[in-house]
Amino acid sequence: MATFCHRPWIPDLADLAARGPDVAVIGAPFDIATTHRPGARFGPRALRALAYEPGTYHLDLGIEIFDWLDVVDAGDARCPSGQTEASHRNIRTKVGGIAGLGIVPVVIGGDHSITWPAASGVAEAVGWGELGLLHFDAHADTADIIDGNLASHGTPMRRLIESGAVRGRNFVQVGLRGYWPPPDVFAWMRKQDMRWHLMHEVWERGSRAVVTDAIAQAVDGCRALYLSVDIDVLDPGFAPGTGTPEPGGMSPADLLRAVRQIALDTPLVAADIVEVAPPYDHAENTVNNAHRVAMEVFAALAHRRRAAAGGVPDLPGRDPHATR
Question: What's the pTM?
Answer without folding.
Answer: 0.97
